[in-house]
Amino acid sequence: MSFTAPVLSYSLLSPMLILLGGALIGVLVEAFVSKALRPAVQLTLTLGTLLLAVMQLWRIRGQQSLTAAVGTIVFDGPAFLLQASILIIAIISVFLIADTEHFAALPAALPGSEEERQAVQSGNQITEVYPLTLFAVAGMVMFPVANDLITLFVALEMLSLPLYLMAGLSRRRRLASQEAALKYFLLGAFSSAFFLFGAAYLYGYSASITFAGIREAIVGGGGNDVLLLIGIAFLSIGLLFKVGAVPFHSWSPDVYQGAPTPVTAFMAAATKIAAFGAMLRIYYTVFANAQWSWTPVLSGIAIVTMLLGSLVAIAQRDVKRMLAYSSIAHAGFLLSGVIALNKAGLDATIFYLFAYGVATVGAFAVVTLVRDSAGEVTDLNRWKGLGKRSPFAATSFALFLLAFAGIPLTSGFIGKFSIFSAAYESGAKGVVIAGVLSSAIAAFFYIRVIVLMFFTDATEDGTSVEIPSILTQASVVIAAVVTVALGVYPAPLLDFITNLAIFIR
Amino acid sequence: MDASNYLYISALLFTIGAVGVVVRRNAIVVFMCIELMLNAANLSFVTFSRINGDLNGQIMAFFTMVVAACEVVVGLAIIVTIYRSRRSASVDDASLLKR
């Protein structure tokens, strides 16, 4: 019997292999390097790994339209763009994670126990968050390039499992943080069970686990449509959960609030890119010919998501919860790009994902700066008069809020404009109307926060703005510069995306 | 015997699991119900593999088992940590974060 070795095309897999290699070395560093050196070594290793992955990704960008690992991974234009966005956002998130003040010194110790006090006093910081971040990033870059159901499922779990743990690592308010981890885990596992069940029915429908095979079965028709509908519906539930679309959004405010803020920043920005990247590939290539079955439902979900996210955000008194509901509303805006199902929609969604991701990391970076003696201050009432105390923090936060609201001269305006015009072009007028309406509602509460920061008198309650490290400051500055640059002069990136973003089927 | 009977069993197991997640209060039991759902999906995969005469479904079942094992590791770690700090594994007691 002859045996043919499979062709793996290592060069196309190399960004993922680099990330996983870095993560494994990180685990060894955690075990063998002395406690005093660990934070510095881990930070260098993590940033180095991410930079190496970016460089490798840039080198292989010319080899588009290829599949690797026997067709389980596909590397095309959108794959390159999405992977690059995820890696860039991961790098600026790691700048925030580098501030160890946010993470429990010894996550295994009981909150308030003697053991924990000793760990804090001796300065022995557990730095396992770095390898966990790298594992999650590896899953995220694999998610949008998966080309069959097995890879898709494994990538989904690879990005989720480290995030569940990272949500529980907060130093302050540890019980709330652990609660966030539990909620995220239980609901995440619940949704991945739906995802898997849907995958089983798609396999049953098409007798193939590859995307190409499923697409051929849909194009050819003649299969059992009940299996196809169950498959699409359940698989979509799993994906919609990850992006936090209504009615699968209930986890996100709690998890955003309870998780350490740097982790929230990373999760909010990078997970959205990965999950929407996978959604784009699946809906644009695999399910495109079954459009009749999912467009109406997804349009409804997009409308409800936009409106509910914007309306509920008005009532929030906590900055992190407000940003969580705003991210739900943005999931709705992004869904309208998925529904558009045309080239303009694809380009616009990729641009919006990057612009929104950068602004999100920037906004949460500012949240980490506003503190009192007991840690971060997330109560909006105590943000009054922040503009006088710290023009830097307040101005940059205002900029990110304006970008979320889609005000001209910020990246958000270009993103919203292109995504809604793509949706309009495809005939989804209801979605566009709901989108514009909820943008207006959202602008109201974003601007209310700006008024609160600049035009309200401060109350003396010990809230101050600290710049804990040069890296945190750097991430705010980078995010602000990118947000303005993409708003003022978006043409180069838009052209770049338009030229590259073509799915191979 | 008609292989599609296994699909009915699988759908039934999945439903039992989903209902269990919604109505049960103990985090461990909720988690067990999720595992039941994953296994129901596995049963579907294997059945479809048999019906379609294609081995990929069985391979997928193996991957699912491995991933489910990883999920158990992470999940039990989180649940045990919560139990140690609160002396309760009830999902209703964990309500610090505002609704």
TrEMBL record, chain A:
<keyword id="KW-0812">Transmembrane</keyword>
<dbReference type="Pfam" id="PF00361">
    <property type="entry name" value="Proton_antipo_M"/>
</dbReference>
<feature type="transmembrane region" description="Helical">
    <location>
        <begin position="226"/>
        <end position="251"/>
    </location>
</feature>
<feature type="transmembrane region" description="Helical">
    <location>
        <begin position="12"/>
        <end position="33"/>
    </location>
</feature>
<feature type="domain" description="NADH:quinone oxidoreductase/Mrp antiporter transmembrane">
    <location>
        <begin position="146"/>
        <end position="441"/>
    </location>
</feature>
<dbReference type="InterPro" id="IPR010096">
    <property type="entry name" value="NADH-Q_OxRdtase_suN/2"/>
</dbReference>
<feature type="transmembrane region" description="Helical">
    <location>
        <begin position="80"/>
        <end position="98"/>
    </location>
</feature>
<feature type="transmembrane region" description="Helical">
    <location>
        <begin position="181"/>
        <end position="206"/>
    </location>
</feature>
<feature type="transmembrane region" description="Helical">
    <location>
        <begin position="149"/>
        <end position="169"/>
    </location>
</feature>
<dbReference type="GO" id="GO:0016020">
    <property type="term" value="C:membrane"/>
</dbReference>
<feature type="transmembrane region" description="Helical">
    <location>
        <begin position="322"/>
        <end position="344"/>
    </location>
</feature>
<keyword id="KW-1133">Transmembrane helix</keyword>
<dbReference type="GO" id="GO:0008137">
    <property type="term" value="F:NADH dehydrogenase (ubiquinone) activity"/>
</dbReference>
<feature type="transmembrane region" description="Helical">
    <location>
        <begin position="296"/>
        <end position="315"/>
    </location>
</feature>
<feature type="transmembrane region" description="Helical">
    <location>
        <begin position="467"/>
        <end position="489"/>
    </location>
</feature>
<feature type="transmembrane region" description="Helical">
    <location>
        <begin position="391"/>
        <end position="411"/>
    </location>
</feature>
<protein>
    <submittedName>
        <fullName>Unannotated protein</fullName>
    </submittedName>
</protein>
<feature type="transmembrane region" description="Helical">
    <location>
        <begin position="350"/>
        <end position="370"/>
    </location>
</feature>
<dbReference type="GO" id="GO:0042773">
    <property type="term" value="P:ATP synthesis coupled electron transport"/>
</dbReference>
<keyword id="KW-0472">Membrane</keyword>
<feature type="transmembrane region" description="Helical">
    <location>
        <begin position="40"/>
        <end position="60"/>
    </location>
</feature>
<dbReference type="InterPro" id="IPR001750">
    <property type="entry name" value="ND/Mrp_TM"/>
</dbReference>
From TrEMBL, chain B:
<feature type="transmembrane region" description="Helical">
    <location>
        <begin position="60"/>
        <end position="83"/>
    </location>
</feature>
<dbReference type="InterPro" id="IPR039428">
    <property type="entry name" value="NUOK/Mnh_C1-like"/>
</dbReference>
<protein>
    <submittedName>
        <fullName>Unannotated protein</fullName>
    </submittedName>
</protein>
<feature type="transmembrane region" description="Helical">
    <location>
        <begin position="28"/>
        <end position="48"/>
    </location>
</feature>
<dbReference type="GO" id="GO:0030964">
    <property type="term" value="C:NADH dehydrogenase complex"/>
</dbReference>
<keyword id="KW-1278">Translocase</keyword>
<dbReference type="GO" id="GO:0042773">
    <property type="term" value="P:ATP synthesis coupled electron transport"/>
</dbReference>
<keyword id="KW-0472">Membrane</keyword>
<dbReference type="Pfam" id="PF00420">
    <property type="entry name" value="Oxidored_q2"/>
</dbReference>
<keyword id="KW-0813">Transport</keyword>
<dbReference type="GO" id="GO:0016651">
    <property type="term" value="F:oxidoreductase activity, acting on NAD(P)H"/>
</dbReference>
<dbReference type="InterPro" id="IPR001133">
    <property type="entry name" value="NADH_UbQ_OxRdtase_chain4L/K"/>
</dbReference>
<keyword id="KW-1133">Transmembrane helix</keyword>
<keyword id="KW-0812">Transmembrane</keyword>
<keyword id="KW-0520">NAD</keyword>
<feature type="transmembrane region" description="Helical">
    <location>
        <begin position="6"/>
        <end position="23"/>
    </location>
</feature>
<comment type="similarity">
    <text>Belongs to the complex I subunit 4L family.</text>
</comment>
